[in-house]
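#data-curation
PF: Archiving a pair of folding outputs for the training set. Convention for this channel: one message per protein, sequence first, structure tokens after, nothing in between. First:
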Amino acid sequence: MHKGIGFWLAKRRLKDPDKTAVVFGEDTLTYRELADAADRVASVLWHRGIRRGDAVAYIGENSPQFLQVMFGAAQLGAVFVPVNTRLAGPEVQHVLVDSGARAVVLDAEFLGRAMPGIEAGRIAQVIVTGDGLPEHPGLARLIAEAPGGHTIADVSLDDPAAIIYTSGTTGRPKGAVLSHGNLTWVALNCVVDYDVVSGDVSLMISPLFHVASLGMGALPVLLKGATLVLEKGFEAGRALALIESHGITMLSGVPTTYQLMADHPAWASTDLSSLRKLTCGGSAVPTRILNAYEERGLSFSQGYGMTETSPGATSLAPSMTREKQGSVGLPHFFTEVRITDEHGEVVPRGTVGEIEVAGPNVFLGYHGLPEATAAAFTEDGWYRSGDLGYLDPDGYLYISDRLKDMIISGGENIYPAEVENLIADIEGISGVAVVGVPDERWGEVPWAVVTLREGADVDTDKVRAHLDGLVARYKLPKNVVVVEDLPRTASGKIRKADLRDRFGGR
């Protein structure tokens, strides 16, 4: 019996064959059409040598083909590797090589950026979405001409389903291995806690390569047999128009997207009466945005999580948005959260400690990194988030600080070490620390604080020019500040909290 996510569409084809599954621009796919296409993708991959356990990478904007490839790979027991389209060439190469991908499906516009990774890795099949290119077959044609006779693997919930790359504190992204069970249970958590129903129409304005958009956005909707309206990207005016024209009931995003919609000239005149559920992640929703949406009768579900928890760990119900403002909520229905001290002992409520998470949505480990995997878990199997927080008397979680110094800018995770390692290579720089500085639009943005060797001349433009093409543009420092000395502890570690305090008010 096939127990993985690969059988979901076949079940939906039986139960709701003519129900609209996906809307993409002017195109509409029923559950029968989506399931048939996924079957054909599985056939295409099988006849091109992809087998159980092989990694299949995908580099492309939101489209039905993203879902078709993911579910098609899942039918074979292959492992889906969605690649962030904003990554620079060297970052893409790392993902393709590290994952050991045997095939890559990608939009034509990303072929040039992906070629170094394709040539350096184990990739034997390159397929281009749409009609393809002279040198590479098009997925649309392959689906149309797909032969039958592929094997559907017997997949268990414990088998790997996807590898999602998350930036690491050491500067190299790590591949978090998510099982079929992880993706199933995180979807069930969302169905329960966000009350997803089959009549919902969900607008997806965030990239599906993000684990939140996939695990907590698309998958619960498809599991429940609701309708997913896919957008290639986000534009505030178009999002408002789609809400009105499609009768959107569900919307997920980050504070920046909600702010841009509220600030758009069409905000006041758009009919938002269909909206029932707004979910927001990445960072806390500012009071100004809460006010703007509450004036329209709308409230948010906010939450906390990470790639390693597929990603949802907690959620704050809309009814508690004001009473528990500042909290990220209660643990999801099938998930548990606890707070421990430096010795691993559970601390009383109200005491700050490390946030640990357990449940069937917690990942299997880091691909090819047994030591990092072992370090990520406690002896009794809880995931160590590396974040500090506390539980209030009612069990609601509050985030106090990030041990890993992660910056969240417009919903994108930035780990300073990755950027710092590259800035340190610039001639004339003797020391560097990258910290997050509050920003009204993006929540926070990276600043680089540097010290210089005598006679050196380094400015923001020089640093950004050096980094451009090496990392995604959202990781480029918005400002470079030169200081005489970086504050350090007795052991020589830079005190980033001091830098955030110093520059955070600017």
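PF: Second:
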Amino acid sequence: MHNHGLGFWMAKRRLKSPEKTALVYGEDQRMSYRELADRTDRISSLLWERDIRAGDRVAYLGENSPEFIATLFGCAQIGAVFVPVNTRLAVPEIAHILSDSGARVLIHDPEFGERIAQAEKRTRLAHIIQTGAHAPHGMSGLDRLLQAAPGGHTDADVGQDDPAAIIYTSGTTGKPKGAILSHGNLTWVALNCVVDYDIVSTDIALMISPLFHVASLGMGALPVMLKGATMVLEKGFEAGRALDLVERYGVTMLSGVPTTYQMLADHPAWPETDVSSLAKLTCGGSAVPTRILNAFEERGLHFSQGYGMTETSPGATSLAPDKTREKQGSVGLPHFFTQVRIADEQGHMVPRGTVGEIEVAGPNVFLGYHGLPDATASAFTDDGWFRSGDLGYLDPDGFLFISDRLKDMIISGGENIYPAEVENLLNDLEGVTGAAVIGIPDDRWGEVPWAVLTVADGAEVDTETVRAHLSGRLAKYKIPKNVVVVDQLPRTASGKVRKADLRARFGG
């Protein structure tokens, strides 16, 4: 075997657990590991027939499905690079990712056809394939193409250091950057999860978060596949249906953000749903509020919380359930195969208890940003540690606490929003003379974006004006929920907007 990356996983699973249920999807449809491996082989053959080779990028725009999983592993088998695209993005955002990544193939669900048609002319795509049996203009869909594709396992020469995926993360300069994750990065993050979350082959994981997010992919799907466990795939999240699936299938694993768990606990079916099977609840994005902790602990359920980012594939730390109360507010200890340290502005290590920049090292840390050598170089220290851009400290026991986000990132319902991306477009709006986007606490979403603007004399700019200007240019979750016009924005001596002052003024 020459493929030492993710590309050999399905062949191994077909050998070790061929009849075990790998995926449950739709209305109780099931796919065994043998069937998933066979589908993966056919996708790799389909791509190979279209001259896709090692290093070529293959994009996927679609909801959670067997096709998503099979395409990921099909790419890995021939050394192609998988590029998942957020389904919530607007046409310009999709076009940027397809163009910037240099994707040659796009596989997409039918409902995104209109957006693809608008974005396609700005890309270098050679092939566009729609999932399902049929495609527009009498073309065959993915299902029919796979029926005609030859089977047989493809064994390309792939190493752990070769790129496996490019995951786009919004950048502080306004354009999303593609984080290159290697086969080793994704293997080691899966191993971190297996070790720290005690994942076993009998687990049943309900996947309610989209797989295009690196947390769902790296810390959800991959460790489950590695262990030969079962994954229940959901195309979206609806609290009542999720509770029904937990009871119906005896779900043992569930991942989400605080909003997810709040919506579950607030649902009318929560008190009578049998949730006793849930043994592993993981939560990221932000700390779990005490109210939600209480609601779940009353049912005998406990959380693992953590910290990470796309560049760390994404897990960096985890807080074990038995430390949730003792270390409340902490994001835990470094994952088993990962290291974390705190540095001052000069790059020197600081004593425990001292706030500084969080730096991360380990085999799960990414290779760099696609096509951005300067950004890659500045993301690492001289001795190879990744500079997170976040501020925090380690307590005497080595537990990490987050103090602030240097990048002013907003996390709304688990989605990352970088203000600069929104501000760049707001500054193009006629009448706007200054713009600052901040996160405001929200009971449902954790926080939501607000725009604080200065406008020219006589100009009339309100929330509806802003939303109309941004609609179609940005994903809906990035569009400010409220607009406030002020006489002037508070600034530092160097002219930088003091966003902490704005958050204190408007955040309540």
